[in-house]
Every structure is written in structure tokens, then in C-alpha cells.
Specification:
The chain is mainly alpha-helical. It contains 7 helices and 2 strands, in the order E-E-H-H-H-H-H-H-H. The chain has a two-stranded antiparallel ribbon with strand order 1-2. Keywords: Membrane, Repeat, Transmembrane, Transmembrane helix, Transport.
Length: 209
């Protein structure tokens, strides 16, 4: 609804009685982007060794048959043969991606929900699912090149090039389209994961015990 002349515009979310300030305070977008990106960057820094193990496990024996190595044995092998620093291969692109991806994934959810509320006059569970799916899918499509560079660095412990050097090599030798390898499954996963996580969390806040 409109307030007095000269005042900023706000809206009430149907069925909730809450005032949506996204139209009145667009700075909230920067706030959500920054806080979301920072929190996910911290989590990424702590859990990055697990991501290195995940990538190595997924890529072992590519195109071959044979016994697979478990996570424990792989961890011992990396520490023994490559050193502890290998557990943080690709950390720079991982942190870059987490800030942008995390900020967009969580930061775009509320604005997307606000737009849907303005268009459809509702913020029901289906609107929340669609908003989460859009935010997750868009964030993944935008950050997929950084993910590709990160995985390449994690798989090559002897690589002397940094993230920028590897990015240039991929573009020059494989073409720019190589930076979006696997973007389809990645978008589907991110869309479904973000939609389920954020819509469930959003709905749970409405439940009164």
C-alpha cells in the first residue's frame, strides 16, 4: 500500500500481515548478498579439504575398471605423498565462488519472492519453491566457470599455474564453452537444493507451536 505523499513505498505480504520493505529499502539486497556470501565463504574455508576428497573420489579410475579407494585411504595417500597443502588446492576459486554463489543464492531469494508477490499477489509455498529454484539455478550458471577452474586445480597437485593461469589455459586450448562444462546438472542440483532448503525454512518460520 502507499503511505503519505513523499514517503517510500512498501507492501504487505498477503496472509502474513508483514510489511515487505524490498521496494522501500533496496539496500537490503546488498546486506543479504554480503552476509550470505561471507557466511558461506567461512564454511567453505573450513570444509574445503572434504571437497578436495570428494572431487578426487569422483574422478578416480575415470574410464577404467578396478577397485576404488575409500575416503580414509585417499586422505592418508594425499597427506603422505602430496602433503597437507594439497588439501587446500583450489581454495582461492572456491572462496571466490562461495562469496558470489552464496550471496546470489541466498541474496536473490527474498527479492525474487517479492517480485512474485507483486505479480501474483501471493507468497505461497509454490512461489517460495520457484524463487529458490531461480536463485540457485542463476547463481550456479553464473559461477560455473569458477567451479571448473577449482576442480582442475584440485585434480592437479603438480600444477604450477594459479587460478588465472589455468583459466587462460582452458579458454585458449579448449574454448570458452569449456568453462560451462556440467552446468546443466549443476543448475538442476542447485535449483532443487535451494528451493527445498529455503522454502522449507521459510515455511517453518510461519508455524506456531
Amino acid at each position: 500500500m502507499d503511505n503519505q505523499p513523499g514517503s517510500k513505498k512498501s507492501s504487505i505480504i498477503p496472509g502474513s500481515g508483514k510489511v515487505n520493505n524490498w521496494a522501500a529499502s533496496p539496500s537490503h539486497l546488498c546486506y543479504h548478498f554480503g552476509t550470505s556470501g561471507l557466511s558461506i565463504a567461512v564454511a567453505t574455508g573450513v570444509t574445503h579439504p572434504l571437497d578436495v576428497l570428494k572431487v578426487r573420489l569422483q574422478m578416480q579410475l575415470v574410464g577404467q575398471r578396478g577397485p576404488l579407494t575409500g575416503m580414509g585411504n585417499l586422505l592418508v595417500h594425499i597427506l603422505k605423498n602430496e602433503g597437507p597443502r594439497s588439501m587446500y588446492l583450489g581454495l582461492a576459486p572456491a572462496l571466490t565462488r562461495s562469496v558470489v554463489y552464496g550471496g546470489l543464492r541466498l541474496g536473490l531469494y527474498e527479492p525474487s519472492k517479492y517480485v512474485c508477490e507483486q505479480v501474483f499477489g501471493s507468497t505461497n509455498i509454490f512461489v517460495k519453491i520457484a524463487s529458490g529454484a531461480f536463485a540457485g539455478g542463476f547463481a550456479t550458471a553464473l559461477t560455473n566457470p569458477v567451479e571448473v577452474v577449482k576442480v582442475r586445480l584440485q585434480m592437479n597437485p603438480n600444477l604450477r599455474r594459479g587460478p588465472i593461469g589455468e583459466l587462460r589455459r582452458i579458454v585458449s586450448e579448449e574454448g570458452i564453452r569449456a568453462l560451462w562444462k556440467g552446468v546443466g546438472p549443476a543448475m538442476a542440483r542447485a535449483a532443487s537444493m535451494t528451493a527445498s532448503q529455503l522454502s522449507t525454512y521459510d515455511e517453518s518460520k510461519r508455524v506456531k507451536f
